[in-house]
Amino acid sequence: MLDLDLDYDRDKKVDPDALDVEWLRHAELAHKYIKHATRCRRAERMADEKVKVTRAELIREANQDPKKTTGKDKPNAADIEAYYRSHPDHIEAKQEWIDSAYEADYAEMVQKEISWGRKASLEGLVTLHGANYFAGPSAPRNLSKEWERKRKQDQIDANNIIGSAIMKRKK
């Protein structure tokens, strides 16, 4: 069910130097992810229905020929349930449903992050832009490099804290 046109890692990024373009692109991008999420939910519902139909067919089969299917002339409900639950067709249908439910859950989370999380990022950047946050030196900052430098410094700081905590314990 994966839509090859979707690339979450690419689509979640916001170019702070092109906020107008990002805003124009956002509604279209959100719609694309909503459409994908609803298709995944539809596939999940169809897989769930397949599980129910497969179960019903196997129960009918067990009732029509109990000796062949359950090994008993008069099987009880547990015997019939054991038959259909262990049948390869039911196991396959159930696995398809599990896989499609996982896909649908993931697609929905990504859709919400694109629709709401990315939108919040855009709004924050627009607020900063409106407050002249990006004004200043004649040479504009490269936010990608700034962000990477900040992440590296945070990692160094985290390692120093862990290292000093270990040293304190050794004393």
List keywords for this structure.
171 residues, mainly alpha, 2 domains, elongated
Outline the structure in words.
This protein is mainly α. It has two domains: 133 residues; 31 residues. It contains six helices and no strands. Helix 2 runs antiparallel to helix 5. The longest helix is centred in the N-terminal third of the chain and has 46 residues. The model has no long low-confidence stretch (mean pLDDT 86).
Largest sheet: none
Total of DSSP H or I helical runs spanning 4+ residues: 6
Q: Strand-residue fraction?
A: under 5%
Order of helices and strands: HHHHHH
- Look at the structure and give the mean pLDDT: 86
Distance between the termini: 57 Å
Task: Work out the oligomeric state of the chains in this entry.
Answer: single chain
Taking all Cα atoms into account, the compactness measure Rg is: 28 Å
The tally of structural domains comes to 2
Number of strands: 0
